[in-house]
Backbone:
């Protein structure tokens, strides 16, 4: 199959690109997780809240992408080696201008996150392959959905089993909603939820259209602008625009309250059997179990999402433990490596 570089003109191309969307949403989780858990929650409570809400909403976007895939009659793939490439690596199927790496919260991480979430210009063209911004990629998917519904009919495009749709899920830290996709209108709602939470409403607003989960008295800021707040050390307030920048209350980050995680760690940095390597291997088994449970939840067993949410707590505890372990490399700490573990090498205790 030859993929269009300017659009999506067949159902197979649409399914391929929606799988890419799933991989794209997943690719943001490891760097956000490392930054989140490197923050001392007592000394950097506000920064941890900001990064934590973004992480939770990226999990939401992952489920929305899976719902879109199921709706068009494809099987979401999450439990596969290519979802965990070596770091650093480019955003999946992008133009390669954004290199995703693992590391602690700080200026370098914020620069990466701002590049990941960078809003597309209002006049930016759709880009199905080799995209420069995530918004341009999703515009191509939206265009493809509309065109295929116009040429093939909505019923032919949305041929998936409605029983596979995940709905009524809420992540404590984040806003937004999981939308069951059953036709073009709900598909466009799902795409809009993803793009607006990342870039802001209509690509010209600071706000994403939701109420702030942590501060329900104010509107929620889109992901890109939440990272602007952290970079500038100040909150957006009513009347602020992308051009004005944030002019509200101070948002202070205590740089001494951040674990100095070794960037882009690998298990091979440590000897077999060493405490750090054992902890990293345990984390990788648990994280791959999480991917397995998410895939099961998205391919016919929605009830498995409860098990996946439970596993996320184990992921958190194991990541925090690694970030407290000296790495033996110039004062840095260890960190999660997010390396693939085949199912038959995941510990027996993790199988239910």
Residues:
């Amino acid at each position: 199959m030859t993929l269009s570089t300017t659009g999506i003109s067949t159902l197979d191309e649409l399914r391929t690109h929606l799988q890419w969307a799933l991989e794209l949403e997943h690719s943001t989780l490891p760097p956000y997780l490392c930054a989140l858990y490197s923050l001392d929650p007592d000394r950097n409570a506000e920064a941890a809240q900001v990064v934590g809400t973004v992480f939770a909403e990226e999990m939401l976007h992952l489920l929305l992408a899976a719902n879109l895939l199921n709706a068009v009659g494809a099987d979401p793939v999450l439990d596969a080696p290519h979802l965990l490439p070596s770091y650093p690596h480019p955003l999946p199927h992008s133009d390669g201008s954004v290199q995703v790496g693992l590391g602690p919260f700080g200026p370098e991480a914020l620069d990466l996150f701002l590049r990941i979430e960078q809003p597309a210009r209002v006049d930016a063209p759709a880009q199905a392959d080799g995209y420069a911004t995530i918004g341009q990629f999703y515009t191509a998917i939206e265009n493809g959905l509309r065109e295929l519904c116009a040429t093939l009919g909505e019923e032919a495009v949305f041929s998936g089993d409605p029983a596979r749709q995940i709905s009524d899920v809420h992540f404590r830290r984040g806003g937004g909603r999981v939308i069951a996709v059953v036709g073009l209108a709900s598909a466009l709602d799902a795409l809009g939820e993803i793009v607006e939470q990342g870039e802001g409403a209509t690509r010209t607003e600071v706000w994403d259209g939701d109420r702030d989960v942590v501060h329900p008295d104010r509107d929620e800021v889109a992901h890109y602008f939440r990272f602007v707040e952290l970079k500038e050390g100040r909150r957006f307030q009513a009347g602020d625009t992308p051009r004005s920048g944030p002019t509200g209350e101070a948002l202070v980050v205590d740089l001494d309250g951040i674990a100095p995680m070794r960037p882009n760690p690998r298990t091979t940095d440590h000897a077999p059997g060493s405490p750090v390597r054992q902890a990293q291997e345990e984390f990788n088994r648990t994280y791959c179990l999480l991917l397995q449970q998410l895939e099961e939840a998205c391919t016919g067993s929605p009830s498995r999402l409860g098990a996946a949410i439970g596993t996320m707590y184990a992921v958190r505890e194991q990541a925090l433990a690694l970030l407290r372990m000296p790495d033996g490399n110039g004062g840095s700490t260890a960190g999660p490596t997010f390396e693939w573990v085949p199912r038959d090498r995941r510990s027996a205790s993790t199988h239910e």
Residues 194 and 340 are 27 Å apart (CA to CA). The chain has ten helices and four strands. The longest strand covers residues 207-211. Residues 1-5, 348-352 have pLDDT under 50 and may be disordered.
